[in-house]
């Protein structure tokens, strides 16, 4: 699978991000975070503005900090319970059971996973690409989602950028959401958000 080379990374932005990223970034409920708290606020705003969203899928669970936040969003809003994939097995946080989060220990590109995802995504959903192959996750799963779904890519500007997904964005007439938050001080959420066109494939 293709990966962005280090030469393609905007070094200055990345170094600034590295030096400032500790702001609102550390642990959530005692679970190590790989993202800043501010991302929760932006996702919450996006869900407030997109009532068509009926479920959330996450690729890349790890210890589950983001999963718990996304699981809370599903629970409180009455969406389908979070579906989250990882190829590694982890000790599931206790909240997974309470929030009915479905942790699936399998490659997201495995045929069984793809069928599961298609079945879950029979309505517009929010899809978070946070596995180790974000470019492939974005370009592949965007095509499986219903129009008006939202797809997000973490590590924006580090592991994935516009040039890697431009064809997909054009093909599905995607609209950028909250672009001012993607890669800006002081919190650098390093995440992009896109909504598929209402009349797209
Ligand atoms: C960046 S971490 C996820 C971070 C997590 N969402 C968080 O915020 O704490 C990436 C994870 O993706 C998992 N992963 C890599 N390839 C995968 C695949 N094909 N299917 C499912 N998970 C995968 C890795 O095992 C790793 O745990």
Low-pLDDT parts are: none
Apparent shape:
globular
- Spell the H/E element sequence: HEEHEHEHEHEHEHEE
Number of helices: 7
By CATH, the topology is Rossmann fold
Bound molecules: S-adenosylmethionine
CATH superfamily: Vaccinia Virus protein VP39
Estimate what percentage of residues fall within beta strands. 15-25%
CATH-defined architecture: 3-Layer(aba) Sandwich
Q: What is the number of beta strands? A: 9
Question: What spatial order of strands do you see in the largest sheet?
Answer: 5-4-3-6-7-9-8
Mean pLDDT: 91
Total domains: 1
Describe the structure.
By secondary structure, the protein is of the alpha/beta class. The chain has one domain: Vaccinia Virus protein VP39 (Rossmann fold, 3-Layer(aba) Sandwich). It is 33% helix and 17% strand. It is built from seven helices and nine strands. It has helices spanning 11-20, 38-49, 65-77, 95-98, 111-120, 134-141, 162-171; strands at residues 27-28, 31-32, 55-59, 80-85, 102-104, 126-129, 150-154, 175-176, 191-195. The longest helix is centred in the middle third of the chain and has 13 residues, at 65-77. It is globular and about 40 Å long. The model has no long low-confidence stretch (mean pLDDT 91). S-adenosylmethionine (SAM) binds at residues 34-35, 59-60, 62, 65-66, 85-88, 107-109, 130-133.
């Amino acid at each position: 699978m293709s990966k962005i080379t280090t030469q393609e990374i905007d070094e200055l932005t990345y170094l600034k991000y590295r030096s400032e990223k500790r702001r609102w970034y550390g642990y959530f409920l005692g679970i190590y975070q790989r993202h800043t708290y501010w991302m929760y606020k932006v996702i919450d705003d996006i869900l407030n503005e997109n009532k068509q969203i009926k479920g959330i899928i996450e690729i890349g669970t790890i210890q589950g900090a983001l999963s718990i936040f996304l699981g809370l969003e599903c629970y409180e809003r009455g969406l389908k319970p979070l579906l989250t994939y990882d190829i590694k097995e982890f000790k599931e946080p206790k909240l997974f059971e309470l929030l009915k989060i479905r942790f699936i220990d399998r490659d997201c590109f495995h045929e069984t996973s793809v069928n599961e995802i298609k079945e879950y995504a029979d309505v517009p959903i929010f899809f978070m690409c946070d596995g180790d192959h974000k470019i492939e996750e974005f370009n592949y799963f965007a095509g499986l989602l219903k129009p008006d779904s939202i797809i997000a890519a973490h590590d924006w500007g580090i592991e994935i950028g516009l040039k890697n997904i431009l064809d997909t964005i054009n093909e599905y007439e995607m609209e950028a959401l909250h672009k001012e938050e993607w890669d800006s001080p002081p919190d650098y959420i390093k995440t992009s958000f896109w909504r598929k066109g209402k009349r797209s494939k």
